[in-house]
Design a protein that fits this description.
Order of helices and strands: HHHH
Largest sheet: none
Number of strands: 0
Number of helices: 4
Structural class: mainly alpha
Length: about 150
């Protein structure tokens, strides 16, 4: 038997995060695309612009991911930043101060996106479970007199 219900009626499930390998695949593909685009448009002389773009990407990817995907997402974005956004291209280097700061920024961006998603989903789930306030019936309610 089919029961017809309105789409907005009842409880809505909390969205599930995307699988970690899918998030990491998206991180690889989009980070490579963005770094190549930035190298074409702005050149390799602006690593902070590349860091900013990859941090925004990490935040967006974190919005759909689990918390366990955050470190891998940050490392993948950092690999493309370090390998292709700063000279010499294709050579991985480690400058302790700079690279640890970049990794921290990317990890913080990913965790911020994931935290924002979990809070937004929990809030939406809470609002879908909270009953609406009763609407007074104008026929049965007595007018208030002062």
């Amino acid at each position: 038997m089919i029961k017809w219900v309105f789409l907005r009626a009842g409880q809505r499930p909390v969205p599930r995060p995307v699988a970690t390998p899918l998030v990491w695949t998206a991180a690889c593909a989009t980070a490579l695309l963005f770094v190549a685009l930035l190298n074409t448009v702005a050149g390799q002389t602006r690593p902070l612009l590349a860091l900013t773009v990859l941090s925004v990407l990490a935040t967006l990817l974190g919005f759909f991911a689990r918390f366990t995907a955050a470190p891998g997402t940050a490392v993948l974005c950092w690999l493309f930043l370090n390998g292709f956004a700063i000279p010499p291209t294709g050579v991985f280097t480690w400058t302790a101060d700079r690279d640890s700061l970049w990794l921290t920024c990317l990890l913080a961006a990913t965790l911020a996106g994931t935290t924002a998603a979990r809070v937004a989903h929990a809030r939406a789930a809470y609002h879908s479970l909270t009953p609406a306030p009763p609407v007074p019936n104008p026929v049965n309610d007595e007018p208030h007199t002062a």
